[in-house]
Amino acid sequence: MENRFFYVKDYTNPAPEKATKNILYENERTNGVIWVIPPGEELPAHYHPDTDDVWVILQGKGEYFMGKGKTRTIEAGMVIPAEKTDVHGVKNTGDELLVFAAVSAPMPSVMIKEE
Q1: Which DSSP category does 32 fall into?
Q2: Model-level pTM greater than 0.85?
């Protein structure tokens, strides 16, 4: 891997206008990303049929989608694992950026939106 060190500020300044996935690395086993979601924007409820997805909330707060209309408030400092087939997604309900790191495995990661 060419770069192994990343600063969150490099992905939040300037702030994006919509939910943005920033891939830090990706290989045949796993990937790591930084999601940046402005106030009022969302990452739609979805699941991965063969991939676990672990989120580490770094900044902000939001409403986490758990499937079947269920939600939970999340905030900076939380770690949220979603096993394969677990529905997950989030809406930024705060007034600052919602920023989280996510690690997914195994690859490839297929995203299926919840109906």
Answers
A1: E
A2: yes
